[in-house]
Amino acid sequence: MMDKHWFQGKHVLVLGLAKSGYHAALLLLKLGAHVTVNDAKDITHTEEARHLMQKNVDIVSGGHPRSLMERSWDYVVKNPGIPYHNPLVQEAQKQGIPVVTEIELASFVCKGEIVAITGTNGKTTTTTLIYHMLKEGNCHPHLAGNIGLVASDVAKNVKEDEVMVTEVSSFQLKGTQFFHPKTAILLNISDAHLDYHGTREDYEMSKAKIFQRMTAKDTIIYNADDPAVSRLVKDAKGKLLPFSLAKKINNGGYKENGAFYFQGKKVMEIEEVSLPGAHNEENMLAAICASLLHGASLSSIQQVLRTFQGVEHRLQYVGNVAGRKVYNDSKATNIESTEKALTAFSDPIVLIGGGLDRGVDFSPLIPSLAHVKAAVFYGETKEQLKATAVKANVPRVKTTETLEEAVKEAFSYSTKGDIVLLSPACASWDQFNTFEERGKTFIHAVQQLAGS
């Protein structure tokens, strides 16, 4: 098995800077590697690149020159967002150079146990819930993942008696060989990121790599209501701990008579929890199972579920503006996420959506648009989404060029008691660098309206 000492004196190419590349480079330096960072953008003037250059890291930016692969590399550490058809990645694979992702590095230096959470939807919410439950229970957790906390930066501070709770994506998992969590959680599987993976099979197999190094001493928490999930865990070697909203599961977590249970013991009444939406019940059940497994008390779990208001950009309650409840769900980058957001509310909804055009058919949204009184769409997909809303008989549908304009239109269509919801159903990359930037732009636009 590979360990951190394998990087001593090795020559490593880090593809893509961003947060993950920056922290991967710093960790590799700490492990004694010779590091070169390559980014398609000109990064030479960024604070991160300047810092790395001061540490004798070679920076090659403004493109991915093929000549880079004429050097002798021991490893390539790839930013998860860089596709596998990238010429440098393909050449590395052709040469037999190991291509790994930053989460792999994190696992080499993490001295404590890793709780890893994946799935198409709900990862961030579940990860954050587990962290707070363990923290409330004095279990010494560390939070990492696509929440702005890079795992390779967090992992080096995790002690042997501590836990790193980390969200992991299919992009990250696809590039792992030795990643070995103590507890793995698979929430759900649906069509997503097929532009990256190419096929549904590749997407599923990438998710399933979370189990590849697990043994009978490890635990797999999984959604027994999801057929794809149940199929993927069938051959995994960890102990299986299922959860279900549909049926009683004596050896796992389940919902019965309006309450959450774990292995026959009542946890709490669902009407006491603060998170809206039936889809969050799955996330909460998964978090309950993991937290109890890692030593949290029932009282600490109950306290978190009563007070947790959601994570930033995931059905985040922005506030009450002129009698309208405003929610930021910018992290809803696919249809299923938006479907779940729309079914989380019983009050009339004014929906704001749109973003990057990936050639997606939006017709699966139609049933969940039943309680939408008005919709405003912007960006590359505005016309496709408009056509979908018209088919769903949404009473008022409008398109705009920008998100800021969409916010103004949405408020003009709303009245007191309505929900104003940003849930784009699309990636942010047509007008924004990240879904976080999109969410912050939305909140700023709402705040400007509130102050006007």
Descriptive notes:
The chain is α/β, with parallel strands linked by helices and 452 residues long. The protein has 3 domains: 7-97, NAD(P)-binding Rossmann-like Domain (Rossmann fold, 3-Layer(aba) Sandwich), CATH 3.40.50.720; 103-307, Mur-like, catalytic domain (UDP-N-acetylmuramoyl-L-alanine:D-glutamate ligase, 3-Layer(aba) Sandwich), CATH 3.40.1190; 316-451, Alpha-Beta Complex (Protein-Tyrosine Phosphatase, Chain A), CATH 3.90.190.20. 33% of the residues lie in helices and 21% in strands. The chain has helices at 18-30, 47-54, 87-94, 102-109, 123-136, 151-154, 170-174, 194-197, 200-208, 227-233, 279-293, 298-307, 335-342, 382-391, 403-413, 435-451; strands at 11-15, 34-39, 58-61, 75-78, 99-101, 113-118, 141-144, 163-167, 183-186, 219-223, 239-244, 253-256, 259-262, 265-269, 316-321, 324-328, 349-353, 372-377, 396-399, 419-422. It has a 9-stranded mixed β-sheet, sandwiched between helices. A hairpin with a 2-residue loop joins strand 12 and strand 13. Helix 5 (123-136) runs parallel beside helix 11, helix 5 (123-136) crosses helix 12 (298-307) and helix 15 crosses helix 16 (435-451). The longest helix is centred in the C-terminal third of the chain and has 17 residues, at 435-451. The radius of gyration is 22 Å and the shape is globular. The mean pLDDT is 93.
